[in-house]
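Schema walk-through. Below, the input block comes first and the output block second. Nothing else is stored per chain. Lengths vary across the set, and this one has 368 residues.
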Amino acid sequence: MRRLNRDIILSLLLAVITALVYVSLILYCRCTVLITRDGIWKSYELLQYVYQGGLNNPEKANAIYIPLLASVWQLLHLAPQQVHLLIAFSNAIAGGLSVAAVYFIVRLLQGTPLIAVLTALFQFACGSFMAQCTSCNDIMPAYCLGTWCLYFFFKYLSGAGGYSLLYAAICYALALLLHWTIALPLATGLVAGFIFSSKGLGAFLRSGIYFSLVVLIALALAAFSTHTTVWQILMPGKGLGSLWVGWSTEKMCVEAVNSLSFLMPAYVYPKVSDALKDPRSIHLLSISGAVYVFIFLFFTFSAFRNNGSLLRKIYGVLLTMLVTGSFMASYDQGYDPQFIIQPMFFFVIGAGVFFIFILPGNKGWGNI
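--- output ---
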Protein backbone atom coordinates (compact mmCIF):
# COMPACT_ATOMS: atom_id res chain seq x y z
CA MET A 1 0.00 0.00 0.00
CA ARG A 2 2.85 2.38 0.82
CA ARG A 3 4.47 1.66 -2.56
CA LEU A 4 1.17 2.29 -4.35
CA ASN A 5 0.65 5.60 -2.56
CA ARG A 6 4.20 6.69 -3.41
CA ASP A 7 3.73 5.75 -7.07
CA ILE A 8 0.42 7.63 -7.28
CA ILE A 9 1.98 10.76 -5.77
CA LEU A 10 5.03 10.64 -8.05
CA SER A 11 2.95 9.99 -11.16
CA LEU A 12 0.59 12.86 -10.31
CA LEU A 13 3.56 15.17 -9.79
CA LEU A 14 4.98 14.12 -13.15
CA ALA A 15 1.64 14.68 -14.86
CA VAL A 16 1.07 18.10 -13.30
CA ILE A 17 4.63 19.36 -13.86
CA THR A 18 4.65 18.11 -17.46
CA ALA A 19 1.31 19.75 -18.21
CA LEU A 20 2.38 23.03 -16.59
CA VAL A 21 5.63 23.13 -18.58
CA TYR A 22 3.78 22.51 -21.82
CA VAL A 23 1.11 25.10 -21.00
CA SER A 24 3.87 27.61 -20.22
CA LEU A 25 5.46 26.91 -23.62
CA ILE A 26 2.09 27.40 -25.33
CA LEU A 27 1.55 30.75 -23.60
CA TYR A 28 5.12 31.82 -24.29
CA CYS A 29 5.09 30.96 -28.02
CA ARG A 30 1.48 32.05 -28.61
CA CYS A 31 1.54 29.89 -31.74
CA THR A 32 0.01 26.42 -31.78
CA VAL A 33 0.75 25.59 -35.43
CA LEU A 34 4.55 25.58 -35.36
CA ILE A 35 4.85 22.06 -36.81
CA THR A 36 1.79 21.48 -39.00
CA ARG A 37 -1.36 23.46 -39.68
CA ASP A 38 -3.81 20.60 -39.19
CA GLY A 39 -5.02 22.22 -35.97
CA ILE A 40 -6.44 25.15 -37.92
CA TRP A 41 -9.10 22.89 -39.41
CA LYS A 42 -9.92 21.38 -36.01
CA SER A 43 -10.31 24.87 -34.57
CA TYR A 44 -12.72 25.76 -37.38
CA GLU A 45 -14.70 22.53 -36.86
CA LEU A 46 -14.97 23.21 -33.13
CA LEU A 47 -16.28 26.73 -33.75
CA GLN A 48 -18.76 25.40 -36.29
CA TYR A 49 -19.99 22.72 -33.88
CA VAL A 50 -20.47 25.21 -31.03
CA TYR A 51 -22.16 28.02 -32.99
CA GLN A 52 -24.12 25.97 -35.54
CA GLY A 53 -25.03 23.04 -33.28
CA GLY A 54 -23.19 20.49 -35.41
CA LEU A 55 -20.88 19.92 -38.38
CA ASN A 56 -21.84 20.04 -42.04
CA ASN A 57 -19.62 17.03 -42.70
CA PRO A 58 -18.91 15.22 -39.39
CA GLU A 59 -15.54 13.50 -39.15
CA LYS A 60 -16.11 9.76 -38.62
CA ALA A 61 -12.41 9.21 -37.85
CA ASN A 62 -12.72 11.43 -34.74
CA ALA A 63 -16.24 10.49 -33.68
CA ILE A 64 -16.29 12.06 -30.21
CA TYR A 65 -13.33 14.46 -30.37
CA ILE A 66 -15.18 17.62 -31.45
CA PRO A 67 -18.34 16.95 -29.36
CA LEU A 68 -16.18 16.36 -26.27
CA LEU A 69 -14.17 19.56 -26.73
CA ALA A 70 -17.35 21.48 -27.49
CA SER A 71 -18.78 20.40 -24.14
CA VAL A 72 -15.65 21.68 -22.37
CA TRP A 73 -15.86 24.90 -24.39
CA GLN A 74 -19.43 25.55 -23.33
CA LEU A 75 -18.70 24.62 -19.74
CA LEU A 76 -15.85 27.16 -19.54
CA HIS A 77 -17.67 29.86 -21.57
CA LEU A 78 -14.62 30.56 -23.73
CA ALA A 79 -14.33 33.25 -26.39
CA PRO A 80 -13.99 32.30 -30.10
CA GLN A 81 -10.39 33.53 -30.28
CA GLN A 82 -9.42 31.05 -27.55
CA VAL A 83 -10.39 27.93 -29.51
CA HIS A 84 -6.83 27.03 -30.49
CA LEU A 85 -5.67 27.41 -26.89
CA LEU A 86 -8.37 25.01 -25.67
CA ILE A 87 -7.13 22.32 -28.08
CA ALA A 88 -3.49 22.96 -27.19
CA PHE A 89 -4.16 22.94 -23.43
CA SER A 90 -6.05 19.64 -23.75
CA ASN A 91 -2.98 18.24 -25.54
CA ALA A 92 -0.70 19.47 -22.75
CA ILE A 93 -2.86 17.75 -20.12
CA ALA A 94 -2.97 14.57 -22.22
CA GLY A 95 0.81 14.70 -22.51
CA GLY A 96 1.15 14.90 -18.73
CA LEU A 97 -1.13 11.89 -18.25
CA SER A 98 0.85 9.96 -20.90
CA VAL A 99 4.05 10.62 -18.99
CA ALA A 100 2.37 9.26 -15.84
CA ALA A 101 1.41 6.08 -17.74
CA VAL A 102 5.06 5.59 -18.75
CA TYR A 103 6.01 5.82 -15.07
CA PHE A 104 3.61 3.01 -14.14
CA ILE A 105 4.71 0.79 -17.05
CA VAL A 106 8.35 0.98 -15.95
CA ARG A 107 7.31 0.24 -12.37
CA LEU A 108 5.59 -2.90 -13.68
CA LEU A 109 9.01 -3.96 -14.99
CA GLN A 110 10.37 -3.64 -11.43
CA GLY A 111 12.21 -0.42 -12.15
CA THR A 112 12.88 1.79 -9.14
CA PRO A 113 10.94 5.06 -8.77
CA LEU A 114 14.05 6.93 -9.95
CA ILE A 115 14.27 4.87 -13.13
CA ALA A 116 10.53 5.23 -13.77
CA VAL A 117 10.84 9.01 -13.38
CA LEU A 118 13.85 9.14 -15.75
CA THR A 119 11.98 7.13 -18.38
CA ALA A 120 8.94 9.39 -18.03
CA LEU A 121 11.20 12.42 -18.46
CA PHE A 122 12.70 10.78 -21.56
CA GLN A 123 9.19 10.69 -23.05
CA PHE A 124 8.57 14.27 -21.88
CA ALA A 125 11.71 15.56 -23.64
CA CYS A 126 11.26 13.82 -27.02
CA GLY A 127 10.95 16.50 -29.68
CA SER A 128 7.93 15.21 -31.61
CA PHE A 129 6.07 14.35 -28.41
CA MET A 130 6.65 17.84 -27.04
CA ALA A 131 5.57 19.39 -30.34
CA GLN A 132 2.26 17.52 -30.31
CA CYS A 133 1.63 18.50 -26.68
CA THR A 134 2.08 22.20 -27.44
CA SER A 135 0.18 22.35 -30.74
CA CYS A 136 -3.51 22.27 -31.66
CA ASN A 137 -3.31 18.94 -33.50
CA ASP A 138 -5.76 16.27 -32.40
CA ILE A 139 -3.75 13.11 -31.68
CA MET A 140 -2.71 13.59 -28.05
CA PRO A 141 -5.95 12.67 -26.19
CA ALA A 142 -6.10 9.40 -28.14
CA TYR A 143 -2.38 8.80 -27.64
CA CYS A 144 -2.80 9.35 -23.90
CA LEU A 145 -5.58 6.78 -23.68
CA GLY A 146 -3.49 4.44 -25.83
CA THR A 147 -0.63 4.56 -23.33
CA TRP A 148 -3.01 3.86 -20.45
CA CYS A 149 -4.54 1.02 -22.44
CA LEU A 150 -1.05 -0.47 -22.74
CA TYR A 151 -0.41 -0.05 -19.02
CA PHE A 152 -3.60 -1.87 -18.03
CA PHE A 153 -2.97 -4.54 -20.67
CA PHE A 154 0.60 -5.08 -19.45
CA LYS A 155 -0.77 -5.31 -15.93
CA TYR A 156 -3.17 -8.02 -17.14
CA LEU A 157 -0.25 -9.86 -18.76
CA SER A 158 1.63 -9.68 -15.46
CA GLY A 159 -1.14 -11.72 -13.80
CA ALA A 160 -3.60 -9.08 -12.61
CA GLY A 161 -7.33 -9.83 -12.68
CA GLY A 162 -9.93 -9.24 -15.35
CA TYR A 163 -10.52 -5.67 -14.23
CA SER A 164 -7.21 -4.67 -15.81
CA LEU A 165 -8.40 -6.09 -19.14
CA LEU A 166 -11.70 -4.24 -18.76
CA TYR A 167 -9.91 -0.93 -18.17
CA ALA A 168 -7.64 -1.63 -21.16
CA ALA A 169 -10.68 -2.25 -23.38
CA ILE A 170 -12.38 0.96 -22.24
CA CYS A 171 -9.22 2.99 -22.89
CA TYR A 172 -8.84 1.38 -26.32
CA ALA A 173 -12.43 2.16 -27.30
CA LEU A 174 -12.14 5.79 -26.20
CA ALA A 175 -8.79 6.17 -28.00
CA LEU A 176 -10.33 4.81 -31.20
CA LEU A 177 -13.28 7.19 -30.91
CA LEU A 178 -10.98 10.17 -30.38
CA HIS A 179 -8.59 9.41 -33.25
CA TRP A 180 -9.04 6.49 -35.63
CA THR A 181 -5.36 6.24 -36.59
CA ILE A 182 -4.46 4.84 -33.17
CA ALA A 183 -6.72 1.81 -33.70
CA LEU A 184 -4.66 -0.40 -36.02
CA PRO A 185 -1.18 -0.23 -34.39
CA LEU A 186 -2.68 -0.65 -30.92
CA ALA A 187 -5.00 -3.48 -32.00
CA THR A 188 -2.19 -5.50 -33.61
CA GLY A 189 -0.05 -5.00 -30.52
CA LEU A 190 -2.85 -6.21 -28.24
CA VAL A 191 -3.45 -9.29 -30.41
CA ALA A 192 0.27 -10.06 -30.21
CA GLY A 193 0.05 -9.68 -26.43
CA PHE A 194 -2.81 -12.18 -26.23
CA ILE A 195 -0.75 -14.63 -28.30
CA PHE A 196 2.36 -14.15 -26.15
CA SER A 197 0.41 -14.42 -22.90
CA SER A 198 0.94 -18.20 -22.78
CA LYS A 199 -2.40 -18.78 -21.05
CA GLY A 200 -3.64 -21.40 -23.52
CA LEU A 201 -6.05 -21.26 -26.45
CA GLY A 202 -9.16 -21.18 -24.26
CA ALA A 203 -7.95 -18.22 -22.22
CA PHE A 204 -6.84 -16.49 -25.42
CA LEU A 205 -10.32 -16.81 -26.95
CA ARG A 206 -12.15 -15.83 -23.75
CA SER A 207 -9.99 -12.76 -23.22
CA GLY A 208 -10.23 -11.71 -26.85
CA ILE A 209 -14.02 -12.05 -26.92
CA TYR A 210 -14.39 -10.22 -23.61
CA PHE A 211 -12.16 -7.38 -24.81
CA SER A 212 -13.94 -7.14 -28.18
CA LEU A 213 -17.40 -7.07 -26.59
CA VAL A 214 -16.47 -4.19 -24.31
CA VAL A 215 -15.06 -2.24 -27.26
CA LEU A 216 -18.10 -2.94 -29.47
CA ILE A 217 -20.52 -1.85 -26.73
CA ALA A 218 -18.60 1.43 -26.35
CA LEU A 219 -18.58 1.95 -30.13
CA ALA A 220 -22.30 1.20 -30.37
CA LEU A 221 -23.08 3.80 -27.69
CA ALA A 222 -20.88 6.36 -29.46
CA ALA A 223 -22.46 5.56 -32.83
CA PHE A 224 -25.96 6.05 -31.39
CA SER A 225 -25.07 9.38 -29.78
CA THR A 226 -23.31 10.74 -32.89
CA HIS A 227 -25.94 9.47 -35.40
CA THR A 228 -23.54 7.23 -37.28
CA THR A 229 -22.78 3.49 -37.43
CA VAL A 230 -20.14 1.30 -35.84
CA TRP A 231 -18.90 0.34 -39.31
CA GLN A 232 -18.38 4.01 -40.27
CA ILE A 233 -16.40 4.56 -37.08
CA LEU A 234 -14.22 1.51 -37.71
CA MET A 235 -13.82 2.19 -41.44
CA PRO A 236 -14.18 5.94 -41.95
CA GLY A 237 -12.53 5.83 -45.40
CA LYS A 238 -10.43 8.87 -44.58
CA GLY A 239 -8.05 9.83 -47.36
CA LEU A 240 -9.25 7.17 -49.80
CA GLY A 241 -9.04 8.38 -53.39
CA SER A 242 -6.60 11.16 -52.51
CA LEU A 243 -3.15 11.52 -54.01
CA TRP A 244 -1.31 11.13 -50.71
CA VAL A 245 -2.54 7.63 -49.81
CA GLY A 246 -0.61 4.56 -50.94
CA TRP A 247 2.75 2.85 -50.59
CA SER A 248 5.93 3.78 -52.41
CA THR A 249 9.65 3.46 -51.76
CA GLU A 250 9.96 7.21 -51.44
CA LYS A 251 7.21 7.40 -48.81
CA MET A 252 8.86 4.63 -46.78
CA CYS A 253 12.12 6.57 -46.83
CA VAL A 254 10.26 9.73 -45.77
CA GLU A 255 8.68 7.83 -42.87
CA ALA A 256 12.07 6.50 -41.77
CA VAL A 257 13.66 9.96 -41.84
CA ASN A 258 10.81 11.57 -39.92
CA SER A 259 10.85 8.74 -37.37
CA LEU A 260 14.46 9.64 -36.65
CA SER A 261 13.35 13.18 -35.84
CA PHE A 262 11.20 11.90 -32.94
CA LEU A 263 13.99 12.43 -30.41
CA MET A 264 15.29 15.79 -31.54
CA PRO A 265 13.73 19.24 -31.80
CA ALA A 266 10.71 18.56 -33.95
CA TYR A 267 11.21 18.90 -37.68
CA VAL A 268 8.93 17.77 -40.49
CA TYR A 269 10.55 16.53 -43.70
CA PRO A 270 8.02 16.08 -46.54
CA LYS A 271 10.93 14.88 -48.71
CA VAL A 272 14.16 13.07 -47.88
CA SER A 273 16.07 15.77 -49.73
CA ASP A 274 14.78 18.33 -47.23
CA ALA A 275 16.76 16.58 -44.50
CA LEU A 276 19.89 15.91 -46.58
CA LYS A 277 20.43 19.49 -47.69
CA ASP A 278 20.78 20.77 -44.12
CA PRO A 279 24.07 19.78 -42.34
CA ARG A 280 22.51 20.37 -38.91
CA SER A 281 19.63 18.02 -39.73
CA ILE A 282 22.04 15.36 -40.94
CA HIS A 283 24.01 15.64 -37.70
CA LEU A 284 20.91 15.40 -35.48
CA LEU A 285 19.41 12.56 -37.51
CA SER A 286 22.68 10.63 -37.25
CA ILE A 287 22.68 10.96 -33.48
CA SER A 288 19.02 9.92 -33.29
CA GLY A 289 19.72 6.96 -35.56
CA ALA A 290 22.56 5.77 -33.34
CA VAL A 291 20.36 6.06 -30.23
CA TYR A 292 17.56 4.15 -31.98
CA VAL A 293 19.83 1.31 -33.06
CA PHE A 294 21.33 1.00 -29.59
CA ILE A 295 17.95 0.98 -27.81
CA PHE A 296 16.48 -1.47 -30.32
CA LEU A 297 19.37 -3.93 -29.98
CA PHE A 298 19.49 -3.63 -26.20
CA PHE A 299 15.71 -4.05 -25.83
CA THR A 300 15.75 -7.04 -28.20
CA PHE A 301 18.66 -8.74 -26.43
CA SER A 302 17.07 -8.12 -23.02
CA ALA A 303 13.72 -9.56 -24.14
CA PHE A 304 15.20 -12.74 -25.59
CA ARG A 305 17.43 -13.22 -22.57
CA ASN A 306 14.35 -13.27 -20.33
CA ASN A 307 12.40 -16.21 -21.74
CA GLY A 308 8.72 -16.21 -20.69
CA SER A 309 9.04 -13.00 -18.69
CA LEU A 310 6.75 -9.99 -18.70
CA LEU A 311 9.52 -8.11 -20.47
CA ARG A 312 9.36 -10.41 -23.49
CA LYS A 313 5.59 -10.05 -23.69
CA ILE A 314 5.84 -6.26 -23.55
CA TYR A 315 8.57 -6.37 -26.17
CA GLY A 316 6.34 -8.42 -28.48
CA VAL A 317 3.46 -5.98 -28.10
CA LEU A 318 5.58 -2.88 -28.72
CA LEU A 319 7.54 -4.41 -31.60
CA THR A 320 4.28 -5.32 -33.33
CA MET A 321 3.06 -1.74 -32.84
CA LEU A 322 6.36 -0.40 -34.18
CA VAL A 323 6.08 -2.45 -37.39
CA THR A 324 2.37 -1.91 -38.09
CA GLY A 325 2.49 1.75 -37.07
CA SER A 326 5.44 2.40 -39.37
CA PHE A 327 3.73 0.68 -42.31
CA MET A 328 0.54 2.62 -41.63
CA ALA A 329 2.48 5.90 -41.55
CA SER A 330 4.16 4.96 -44.85
CA TYR A 331 0.78 4.22 -46.42
CA ASP A 332 -0.70 7.53 -45.30
CA GLN A 333 1.65 10.46 -44.66
CA GLY A 334 5.09 9.40 -43.52
CA TYR A 335 5.99 12.89 -42.40
CA ASP A 336 2.85 13.52 -40.32
CA PRO A 337 3.96 13.83 -36.65
CA GLN A 338 0.70 12.32 -35.37
CA PHE A 339 1.60 9.08 -37.16
CA ILE A 340 5.23 9.17 -36.05
CA ILE A 341 4.72 9.30 -32.27
CA GLN A 342 2.59 6.13 -32.16
CA PRO A 343 5.14 3.43 -33.15
CA MET A 344 7.97 5.30 -31.41
CA PHE A 345 6.60 4.28 -28.00
CA PHE A 346 8.76 1.17 -28.44
CA PHE A 347 11.88 3.27 -27.90
CA VAL A 348 10.49 5.05 -24.84
CA ILE A 349 9.99 1.78 -22.97
CA GLY A 350 13.24 0.45 -24.47
CA ALA A 351 15.04 3.37 -22.86
CA GLY A 352 13.43 2.41 -19.54
CA VAL A 353 14.75 -1.15 -19.90
CA PHE A 354 18.24 0.25 -20.47
CA PHE A 355 17.94 2.46 -17.38
CA ILE A 356 16.87 -0.56 -15.32
CA PHE A 357 20.00 -2.42 -16.35
CA ILE A 358 22.55 0.37 -16.11
CA LEU A 359 21.54 2.38 -13.05
CA PRO A 360 22.33 1.34 -9.46
CA GLY A 361 19.64 -0.15 -7.25
CA ASN A 362 18.64 -2.89 -9.70
CA LYS A 363 19.90 -6.36 -10.54
CA GLY A 364 20.18 -5.91 -14.27
CA TRP A 365 18.31 -8.44 -16.38
CA GLY A 366 17.66 -10.57 -13.34
CA ASN A 367 15.34 -7.88 -12.07
CA ILE A 368 12.99 -8.03 -15.07
